[in-house]
């Protein structure tokens, strides 16, 4: 999926401005991912060419509209850097999740090997680092801190919740670290690059926290609710990995017949902890039970609460043509199905 179906960018003139900026990001992205080496270029551009919504660049570009110079070249650079970091993590994530499909195409690990995918992610990260250095030491520091958060979130997800810990609290922390932090940095970067005021930079970062968290929660809902092929990924990947996401955690918390069956399917009978579900029929059954569960309804309620929170932050931002577009981006984030 390379478009934001139904995203309302407002007037034709404003939509054109955003589209022009996104096209510049696309050119810079492919230029930065190209190497003198043919195999490196092919592997490193594979995911960028497979599609993707460019959600982070879009958010950075919209955030930049609140600054005095939204057309600055630094805005394009910032928007490109965050997408490169995101892409780098996807190469590694698909290795860890043993995912075969990404953006409707073969993941790099399945098309080539784990080694090729890991090295491609490293290459993207190297190129993102080179590009961010042109934005100065503050930008380098912000990206370094964000990257440490991403990796910590991925580590926390891998290790799982501590004994006696609250699994929902653990989940929300992971979600903010692995996804919210980079989307927050995207808003911060776009706003900083366009010389927005310190207060507005903080508001756009806060907005990114909320949108980013909601984005990952909706991603996790889609892993359960999407019909195969719709999301460009294989549904049920989280269950296969033994990763319990928000609809699952809410469903397991309740005490109806559905949740009892879910416990049998998703928990290790010895330890009572999350277990990877490897049997295709069991994955399909768990997905069916989850989609009809109160856990799924509760997860959707949570998404709507994020949308209200995001609107409250938006209301604190000064008037701009980007207001309506960001509001539309919030709705897109919670309503998306792929
Ligand atoms: C996607 O989650 C994963 C992330 C947003 C973070 C991944 C972070 C790393 C792999 C850190 C290491 C990276 C490098 C380059 C050193 P998901 O698996 O729930 O999403 P999906 O459904 O899109 O696969
Ligand atoms: Mg994954
Ligand atoms: Mg993952």
UniProtKB/TrEMBL annotation:
Pfam families: polyprenyl_synt. SUPFAM superfamilies: Terpenoid synthases (SSF48576). GO terms for biological process: isoprenoid biosynthetic process. Keywords: Magnesium, Metal-binding, Transferase. Pathway: Isoprenoid biosynthesis. One of its GO terms (molecular function) is prenyltransferase activity. InterPro entries: Isoprenoid_synthase_dom_sf (IPR008949), Polyprenyl_synt (IPR000092), Polyprenyl_synt_CS (IPR033749). It comes from the Bacteria. Its cofactor is Mg(2+). PANTHER family: ALL TRANS-POLYPRENYL-DIPHOSPHATE SYNTHASE PDSS1, GERANYLGERANYL PYROPHOSPHATE SYNTHASE. Belongs to the FPP/GGPP synthase family. This is Polyprenyl synthetase family protein. The lineage of its organism: Bacteria, Bacillati, Actinomycetota, Actinomycetes, Mycobacteriales.
């Amino acid at each position: 999926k390379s478009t934001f179906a139904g995203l309302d960018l407002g007037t034709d003139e404003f939509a054109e401005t955003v589209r022009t900026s996104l096209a510049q990001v696309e050119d810079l992205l492919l230029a930065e991912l190209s190497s003198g080496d043919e195999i490196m270029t092919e592997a490193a551009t594979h995911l960028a060419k497979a599609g993707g919504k460019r959600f982070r660049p879009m958010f950075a570009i919209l955030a930049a509209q609140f600054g005095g110079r939204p057309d600055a070249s630094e805005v394009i650079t910032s928007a490109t850097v965050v997408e490169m970091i995101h892409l780098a993590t996807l190469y590694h994530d698909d290795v860890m999740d043993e995912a075969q499909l990404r953006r409707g195409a073969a993941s790099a690990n399945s098309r080539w090997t784990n080694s090729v995918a890991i090295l491609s992610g490293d290459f993207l990260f190297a190129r993102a680092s080179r590009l961010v250095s042109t934005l100065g030491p503050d930008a380098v520091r912000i990206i370094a801190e964000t990257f440490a958060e991403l990796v910590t979130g991925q580590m926390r997800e891998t290790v799982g919740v501590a004994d006696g810990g609250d699994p929902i609290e653990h989940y929300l922390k992971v979600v903010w670290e692995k996804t919210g932090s980079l989307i927050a940095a995207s808003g911060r970067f776009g706003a900083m690059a366009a010389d927005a005021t310190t207060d507005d930079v903080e508001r756009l970062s806060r907005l990114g926290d909320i949108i980013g968290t909601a984005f990952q929660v909706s991603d996790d809902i889609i892993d359960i609710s999407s019909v195969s092929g719709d999301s460009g990924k294989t549904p049920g990947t989280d269950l296969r990995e033994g990763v319990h996401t928000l609809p699952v955690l809410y469903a397991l918390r309740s005490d109806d017949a559905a949740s009892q069956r879910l416990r049998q399917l998703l928990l290790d009978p010895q330890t009572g902890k999350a277990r990877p579900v490897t049997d295709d029929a069991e994955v399909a059954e768990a997905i069916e039970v989850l989609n009809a569960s109160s856990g799924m309804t509760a997860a959707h309620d949570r998404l709507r609460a994020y949308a209200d929170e995001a609107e409250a932050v938006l209301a604190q931002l000064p008037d701009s043509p980007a207001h309506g577009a960001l509001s539309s981006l919030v709705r897109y984030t919670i309503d998306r199905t792929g």
